[in-house]
Amino acid sequence: VQLQASGGGLVQAGGSLRLSCVASGSIFRSNTMGWYRQAPGKQRELIAGITPGGSLMYQNSVKGRFTISRDNAKNTVYLQMNSLKPEDTAVYYCNADRDITALHLKIRKNDYWGQGTQVTVSS
Fold it and tell me: Where are the beta strands (DSSP E) in 1-123?
């Protein structure tokens, strides 16, 4: 299993970042992909998801600012983050499962998460 997130960094409020996550082909092709984040002292949360067919899901806090997309040829899912706010500061992870509901439930499971990428937004 491979889940490698990258693209994080330090950015000022209002700035943009683009995260990437490369997944093993075996788990990418037929699964819904999701982006999660975990801020210090808080529970990990699902913020965006995309099905193999391209249906999208966003948490209200990121709707209109973040865009999830996937490149099936590259087994890669992206998260374009615009208008970043200090409250977006967190470690960002990607993962995969059969549907959006399963992505939500994965938060409570002891599943493999791979290496996340740190996003820090300064005010």
Answer: 3-6, 9-12, 17-23, 32-38, 45-50, 56-58, 66-71, 76-81, 90-97, 117-122
pLDDT digits (tens, 9 = 90+) for 97-109: 999 999 999 998 8
Sheet holding 17-23: strands in order across?
3-6, 17-23, 76-81, 66-71
Instruction: Give pLDDT tens digits for 64-86.
Output: 999 999 999 999 999 999 999 99
Give the pairing of strands 3-6 and 45-50. Answer: unpaired
> H or E segment at 27?
helix 25-28
Q: Can you give the length of the chain in residues?
A: 123
Are the CB atoms for 6 and 17 separated by under 8 Å?
Answer: no
The amino acid at residue 65 is: R
Query: What's the whole-number mean pLDDT along residues 16-31?
Result: 92
Q: How far apart are CA 81 and CA 79, in angstroms?
A: 6
Yes or no: say if 31 and 21 are a contact pair by the CB < 8 Å rule: no
Radius of gyration of the chain from Cα atoms? 13
